[in-house]
Design brief:
The protein is an alpha/beta fold. It has two domains: 2-134, HAD superfamily/HAD-like (Rossmann fold, 3-Layer(aba) Sandwich); 148-317, Muramoyl-pentapeptide Carboxypeptidase, domain 2 (2-Layer Sandwich), CATH 3.30.1380. Helices cover 45% and strands 18% of the residues. The protein is built from twelve helices and eleven strands. The strands form three sheets. A five-stranded parallel β-sheet has the order 5-4-1-6-7, with helices on both faces. The chain is elongated and about 80 Å long.
């Protein structure tokens, strides 16, 4: 699971009122620890991040204070998470060496140089904040942008491997089956779309209802597309591989264009855009024409980058409306 490693003291916990007790047994007195205050905006930021990632806390404290540390985190309304404590750098290094086998860390957030050392061990992006004064108001967006950049890189790598494999095998298949290969392929995609139609219809209509949108109004459909895109980017294998622009939207007509397509870029690099068109573009009709959420809507695609146009056009419309 994707996770974020968060240092406690100085990063999210302002413990300065008891620092004069260093080397004193009262340093971790329960009453005093529970009076520590959160670094401004850190609670809200971590609550937001917890909706996307597992939060793993680590602190330079003796392990005997684990229960007390959890109590403070809960009292301050920090999101639930794994808590690990080590009162020496070596102890914390041992902890993160174990954690890297349990979590896929995207980011580590701390406030000191040795936090960066821990982040290097778990191979994640390191964010080092000013001690007790970290700019937590900007951290959420910063982490999300880092994640998106990483996701785009992963999506490109996966697609490159997919296209590389298809570019090797398709010429052999075409030499054996000729163009009838595409008839079989397109038919199988249509069957796959049809077999999942009812379940997709239910899920999609539930989504429209939950968002108070009308699937018979393409103005609402455009809003739905955007909301889905904004909320489901983490699971979208297409994320970052295409650039879109809205061309025109009305109650009965929706049109967007794709101005850049990494699919087309890769297939053209293999000298086989016509194969890419058959695999990726022509099958768009299975999902966009008479979509599960409204079978009255039709689809046309007069331009595609794969076929040499400057951009792709995706048009959905309600027929017999004069548009």
């Amino acid at each position: 699971m994707r996770a974020i490693l968060v240092f406690i003291d100085g990063t999210i916990c302002d413990d300065r009122k008891r620092l004069h007790l260093v080397r004193n047994s009262d340093l971790f007195n329960r009453e005093l620890v529970l009076q520590d205050i959160p670094v401004p905006n850190s609670v809200d930021c971590l609550q937001q991040l917890a909706s996307h990632y597992a939060i793993v806390y680590i602190g330079a404290r003796p392990s005997s204070t684990l229960t007390l540390t959890r109590e403070w985190l809960k009292n301050q309304n920090y999101p639930e998470g794994h808590v690990h404590l080590g009162d020496s750098l070596d102890a914390r290094i041992n902890i993160v060496n174990q954690l890297k086998n349990e979590f896929d860390f995207l980011v580590g957030i701390g406030d000191r140089w040795d936090d960066n050392e821990l982040h290097n061990i778990i191979h994640c992006q390191s964010i080092i904040l000013e001690e007790y004064a970290g700019n937590w108001g900007q951290i959420y967006n910063r982490v999300i942008e880092l994640h998106k950049t990483h996701l785009i890189s992963q999506n490109k790598i996966r697609l490159e491997g997919k296209v590389e494999g298809l570019a090797r095998v398709c010429p052999h298949l075409l030499s054996r089956f000729s163009e009838s290969l595409w008839d079989v392929y397109h038919s199988s995609v249509m069957q796959m779309a049809e077999s999942s139609r009812e379940s997709r219809r239910k899920d999609d209509l539930d989504s429209f209802k939950r968002l108070n949108l009308n699937p018979d109004n393409l103005l609402d459909v455009e809003r739905w597309y955007k909301l889905i895109s904004d909320s489901e980017w983490e699971e979208n294998p297409l994320y970052g591989l295409q650039d879109h622009e809205i061309v025109e939207v009305s109650k009965t007509y929706y049109c967007h264009k794709v101005t850049h397509c990494y699919y087309a870029e890769l297939w053209k690099s293999h000298g086989m855009p016509e194969v890419g068109y058959q695999i990726h573009c022509k099958t768009d009709f299975a999902w966009w024409d008479k979509p599960a959420w409204n079978s009255n809507i039709r689809f046309k695609q007069p331009k595609t980058i794969m076929q040499g146009d400057d951009y792709c056009l995706f048009i959905q419309y309600l027929p017999n409306t004069g548009e």
